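Now for our specimen.

. . .
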Amino acid sequence: MCGRYSLFTSEEEQEIREIIAEVSRMHPNAELKTGEIFPTNTAPVLIGGASRLEPEPLVWGFPNFRNKGIIINARAETAEQKNMFRESLLGRRCVIPSTGFYEWKQGAAKQKYLFRNPESRVTWLAGFYNEIGGERRYVILTTAPNESIRDIHSRMPVVLSKERLEDWVFRVDDAMEILRKVPPLLEKEAVG
């Protein structure tokens, strides 16, 4: 499960800063959250425009209509079979830019870890969105953990390479192939 992620805008995160600047120009009234992103925060997300990926402010989490709360993740293995997710997965895929995501190791004392892409300042997460109650909302897809996360948590986000972002958003067959692949190995750092 991915319950929080980071979106820092220091000098080194130039790509993230450019995405936030573009969202701010296009949506001057959007109240974007940066730093540690929590469910229900509004954050920049890349969606498919007419011919390119376009950053938009979206809210993290679908309302859970069966009970209170929100749904923030969807399992990559079963999303296509779920009525709530199928249309969005097939037609409204998005990319969540981040500077890493957090997981907690359970035990005598919970330990928080930040996972990042060691090859890049940006860790791109796969998701999809829908318009619900007049606002666009997104969820993050999760999959079985790879070796870099398995000892900490039983799930991890689907992590995209920068070269596959457009494949993920614009091409259904490529997106389904991405969902079946083992995500890249990540680096972890104990935080907090």
The chain has a mean pLDDT of 94. The two ends are 19 Å apart (CA to CA). The longest strand covers residues 123-132. The helical segments are 14-26, 86-91, 165-170, 172-180.
